Amino acid sequence: MAAEIHSRPQSSRPVLLNKIEGHQDAVNAAVLIPKEDGVITVGEDRTIRVWLKRDSGQYWPSIYHTVSSPCSSMSYHHDSKRIFIGQDNGAIVEFEISEDFNKITFVKTYPAHQSRVSAIVYCPESEWVISTGHDKSVSWMCSRSGSMLGRHYFSSWASCLQFDHDTKHVFVGDYSGQITLLKLDQNTYSIITTLKGHEGSIGSLCWDPVQRLLFSGASDHSVIMWDIGGRKGRMLLLQGHHDRVQSLCYLQLTRQLVSCAADGGITVWNMDISREEAPQWLESDCCQKCEQPFFWNLKQMWDSKTIGLRQHHCRKCGKAVCGKCSSKRSTYPVMGFEFQVRVCDDCYETIKEEDRTSLATFHEGKHNISHMNMDSSRGLMVTCGSDRVVKVTHLT
């Protein structure tokens, strides 16, 4: 059973059901097979494996297939049983899995990238295979012919992507911490906007097409919710991890966001509440509370014959303050601060005890988590990572 750090009875709690072991190297992607007791995994050991649950309750490999290069990413379409495997050499290989999940058949190879494929999305409506890679590009290819339709290059490695099938908008996160929104067409594209808010590389994206919300997780240990549909540029910052966030999943029915980090931390966020947007940090040459100069304000230091102070920022109001005027720390979950952060003394007095009540629960997956997949209809979650272990858990 997954060890729980903080308990909140009203929120989901992951309970370990099965542990799948067998890969000889890191497992880079794992997906639950809809309506089946099965899991598909791919890894650095160049294998594609389909695990089916036997009468004994254990998962056994029904398919074990080896390809030419380490498997870095995967997209599985259950209705057609088509599976697309991204490889370290930049190619995407398509297979078809039999109805009984006991046979895998090679279909074609797509010349997608010049180096490691980081993410894949298959769009059956337009017959596109969209992917990002470490060659700093996003590409989209025709799944009928296997030919390249278009490509766009970024200034950094493209690390993850999400695609809106109705509008044909693609979101691409990169290692510089930016998220680029593009509108794709059959052979052309246009850049819509760039989202900037993270201070580290983007590790995961999650798109909710119903509410038109985009969630991003990054190496700065934070998650950001972007209000794309409202077109207000609204940005909610969620801080509840101690390591880089590598996988995200939004549960539409319960309005919960599940985020997983490299240290095994699993956070379940309650998004069915009204949250406050974190303020922009203000800049000033002196403390906006006591008006003492900061250390770069040479003129005021000379005039007042004082030594300059270090600048800090209150996370609640955003004002530039000195250490003496921001001596307090507090959680403020409605603004996404589940851990204690610096607040100015004035804001600290306005925070009531009920304002500190957590709006998330924290759990320990007990292994490195680089990828997560969920089946919300059954309340199942599968996680995998560099420790070669795949875990199937149930959100109770």
UniProtKB/TrEMBL annotation:
It comes from the Eukaryota. WD repeats lie at residues 20-51, 195-228, 238-279. This is WDFY1 protein. The keyword rRNA-binding does not apply. Gene3D superfamilies: YVTN repeat-like/Quinoprotein amine dehydrogenase, Zinc/RING finger domain, C3HC4 (zinc finger). Keywords: Metal-binding, Repeat, WD repeat, Zinc, Zinc-finger. The gene is Wdfy1_1. InterPro entries: WD40/YVTN_repeat-like_dom_sf, WD40_repeat_CS, WD40_repeat_dom_sf, WD40_rpt, WDFY1/WDFY2, Znf_FYVE, Znf_FYVE-rel, Znf_FYVE_PHD. SMART domains: FYVE, WD40. Residues 281-352 form the FYVE-type domain. It comes from Polyodon spathula.
